[in-house]
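Check out a protein:
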Amino acid sequence: MKAQLLPPQFARLKRKAARRLQVERVWHYLRWLVLLIGLWGCAACLHLPQSLPDYLHFVLELALFGSVIGWASYALYHSPPPSLEDIDQRIARDGGLNFRPLEALTDRPALIKTASQEQKHQAGQLWALHHQQLLDSLKTLRLRPPRFFHHWAERLTALCLLIGLISLASVAGPHLGLRLKAGFLPGHDDDSVPLPTLQGWVNLPHYAPGAPLFLTPHMPPLTLPEGAVVHILVGGATTRPSLRGQKHIHYNHLPTGEWQIETALIKSHTLTLSYRGRVMGHWSVQISHDTPPDIRWDGKAGPKTSDDWHTHIPWSVAQPHGVTALEVRLYPIIPPSHTPNKAHEIRSPLPLKPHTRKAHETTSLDLSDNPFAGLKVVGRLCATSSSNKQACSPPQTFRLGHRPFHNPVSRALLALRLRLASGQDDPTQTAHALGLLTSLSLPSDVALPLIWLRQRIIAGLPSEHINEQLWFNALYEEDREQTGEVIAASMLHVRALQNAVRLHLLALAQQPSPPPPHEQDALHDELNRLKEALGQHLAFIFQKANRNGLVMPMPDGKGMPWVRLAEHVQAEALAGHIPQALEHLKAMLEPAEQMRQATLPDMQALAASMQAQAEARNQRMALRELIRQETELLNHAQKRLAAEQPTSSVMESHKDVSQMSTAELLSQLGMASHEGTGPATTPLDPTALLSHAEGRQQDHATQYALRHLTHILNKRGEALTKKKMPNLVKAEADMGPVLHNLANREDEVSVRTIQTVLEDLSQARHDMKKNQAAAQQTSKGHLGFIPPPSASSTEDPNGSAGVSPEDDPNGGQDNDEPEDEKQPKNQDPLGRKMDDSSDSDAHIPDHDTNRAHDIERELQRRASDRTRPQSELDYLNRLLAPLRQSH
């Protein structure tokens, strides 16, 4: 019998019966595996398999499950599939059919060979009617589900196993899954094993500083800046823990036995820390990405004037967490092309304070020694934030600053340099052009260096050295024509020394920091020679000015900018900051270049400035002498007043404070009593008044002369600075009452009026310094960095010359004081440092200070005396309240 001969509905029935038989056949062999899994799960709930060592657990589980699975697979593979007879029997058994009715569906009627056609036709109709009746009787036939348990023993075993699993699962509770996982997977622990210790924290990135954020096993979602670093320490772990959610994770097994885990957070993730199948921590992290810097042009770049060889770069940058680096990238437009050439990119860093969040400034760059100086360039500003985010500004086209060259030979050398740097010529063509140039009738000091350079180019001199030598020769020829052979040779010597220092610094960059002592000494000697050469160059320029009729004294070399810049070069080289040292070295030649470009009007402006500084210094010295003379008048008046007072009043001032009344104590402290009455005026001795008449007359004459000197000083100061000094005018007016009091023998009033004059002169001294400093700043010309001859000038941190401390209104002490009268603070006459504190054994207390302390202590003693009237105690407490707060 074939299934395809049956009607479709019975064919499907046979296929279902075959599948059920196949399921029962597979279950017959897999029931042992299911039994083993159930028993192993019960053992896992009782902590049995996971309590074994990992290797023994793995071997035992592999042996048991491997053998059962292997036997079941082998038996299934060699077991025959269900036969058609088995399928019919399954259908008949499930449908309750007898006598095998399904076989009749495929049978045919048995006919006699000699039967006629009519008999065969009648027999066929009869068989078809029987076949139809049989099909109608089988329409309600249904199959039963597969039978897994055929015997009561199997059912009992399955029931006991199910009851055991349910009981053990109820005992395990929420740890059921963890126990089953640890039982079936070697290398995993369940709840019976304690978890290792966990310490975790997050270090915020350097651009967004803050306190570390400590982690707990389960905490709300975190929002962290980009670049934060997660640190995790797992203690008591026998194997390596696992952190999921990040790609780049660093594991380190510490000597203490702990595991250290580090990872940087770049994107938002969910971090999960697990150990031997158990979750120790779960953190959801949202990363806030840092924004790139907002960099833009703050104006038109380029030189300010046609004679300015500096390239001014106006820029503006802003970033919430700060910018660490800023540079300008320049792409020259080399004729005859009209597009920028990116192959000859020029990068120049712009000075920027560390971690600048917002700034806008104009930086002046000296790119005049670049072969492409004077050409148009396309520039872009590029900034790097603290989080290493980079951004560039839109491009801007401008022209690079260049030095003006008028000499034809210098211009020809610069043209050769440009063609060589841009690749239009090779060294051979440059040597040929130099040969044509030296064939001209040139001075020997110009032709010989060019011939020597041509020979070196033929010998294989590198292109960068060729560009450097062409630049130096062009500068020398221009200096020779503009300033003369002597000054040009001096400037060439300065450039040679500067180039030697530059090469030395580049060599130090290849060595570890700090450089050895002999290298430091060699660099110090080279810088000294460079400073001496710069000073000699300045002397040549002043000699030339003297020959032109401008008589100026030679300034002191200590105040020149290159002195402080040389110290910066030495310090930066010692610290290993070679780029900064090269920048300071380049700035050392800036004053020399300004002197090279100086014209006759610049020298005249310098002479006028020196004359004005000398006049200002004389005025300051005059004012200082005026203050000294006025102070002597005050001393004379106080001396006379002390001699004119009765002896009893003098003794009273030294009376024991414990014997004084409260009003007397307040009077000694210079405080009014609570009654509001001031101290009574002590009558003076008439005899002493008459004996001091001659001294008072001399002081009157001196005061009159000082008043006239104040008037003259006011007029000269106003003429110098074009500003009025109201305090000097007030001092002149206040000297009138002093003259009146001296004439009337009123020494006590004279003391107060002279003190008022001294206050006015002190304020006028500050006004004079401020006005003179402002006038000098506005009058500085092209050579304003050169200090006055007798001034000890200083400079600002950027290397440019500044005013001397005596010219600085905030300078504090006046440096016009003679050197032999100056004494350092906190030093004795032998130059030893003094401890001026009251606790020191060398401290010499002031008499007036001790007297005030004694009075204050007496007031405090009386305020603590409860036997005094309450009104007096309240008044004393109010008086002592400010003193207690000051302590």
Summary: The mean pLDDT is 78. The first strand starts at residue 197 and ends at 203. The longest helix spans residues 600-644. The CA atoms of residues 331 and 351 lie 20 Å apart.
